[in-house]
Design brief:
DUF4253 domain-containing protein, 7-stranded mixed beta sheet
């Protein structure tokens, strides 16, 4: 059974900023559906705020997110808010954390900016080198997600308009072969039109759950669209179709080589 540990309040940091950094930690991960239930429970308690889970390879995910926000199109000039902070390192750390709601609002604005919009088919440029093992990894992860998760899950919370914007809480996609933050947003927003709610991200993977808006009759269209992004052979599409229909979730990579996760299933 999973355990949810709410992060202690820090009086020096505003509550919105604290929740963006870490609202809670989920541990004792033994069942994927329990994790999804935890997400639903936290969401219910905090609505209308939005909840984001950080799920796989958290140290690497934090590293790449740190660099992803340096993207010229995403960059937020935090030092402009530090004129009265002085030279104290602790004061700078507190000030930096306190401006995170402003940074997230800036990232949302940039994600929606017309100049930063991407087409779904453009994402295929990043996945054209996927081989059979990469596709096999996608299928295995959707069959059984638990082996690819970190030993804990970080829960972040922010005030946003819709779930697709949650990528702004933790922008990611730093390496040149990865989907960048704007490309991730394109995929996330597109799948939202089919009733998939974006719930989480890690160093390599994006996570969704089905909502009541999911229409089983649209699954062929969904597969057609996903085949524009990932090099799915007909047989692969059939297997993924079965998983989409059977599962209440969907997990897709945004990294260069998801086959690295196959090692998690070799034990």
């Amino acid at each position: 059974m999973t355990q949810i540990q709410i992060t202690a309040t820090d009086e020096s940091i505003n509550l919105e900023a604290q929740h963006i950094e870490r609202y809670a930690t989920i541990t004792e991960l033994s069942n994927w559906q329990d994790i999804l239930n935890d997400y639903a429970s936290i969401k219910q308690q905090l609505q209308p705020k939005k909840v984001l889970l950080i799920l796989d390879d958290i140290p690497q995910a934090e590293y790449t997110s740190m660099h992803a926000i340096e993207d010229e199109a995403l960059y937020f000039d935090s030092e402009a808010h530090f004129e009265d902070v002085g030279d104290d390192d602790e004061a700078w750390d507190i000030a930096y954390k306190n401006i995170q709601p402003l940074a997230v609002a800036h990232y949302v604005q940039q994600l929606h900016a017309q100049a930063n919009q991407k087409q779904l088919k453009q994402l295929a440029e990043k996945t054209k080198y996927y081989d059979a093992d990469d596709i096999q990894a996608i299928l295995r992860i959707n069959e059984h997600p638990l082996p690819v998760l970190d030993t804990q899950i970080i829960v972040k919370v922010a005030t946003l308009t819709d779930d697709a914007e949650k990528i702004a809480i933790f922008p990611n996609g730093y390496f040149s072969a990865d989907f960048n933050s704007f490309e991730n947003f394109t995929l996330i927003r597109h799948l939202a039109t089919y009733g998939f709610e974006f719930i989480g991200i890690g160093a390599s993977l994006l996570y969704w759950i089905k909502t009541e808006r999911f229409d089983h009759s649209k699954v062929e269209t969904i597969l057609h669209d996903l085949a524009q992004v990932y090099p799915l052979a007909v047989a692969d599409q059939d297997k993924l179709k079965t998983l989409i229909l059977e599962n209440n979730y969907l997990i897709l990579p945004y990294c260069e080589s998801p086959q690295a996760y196959l090692d998690a299933y070799s034990h």
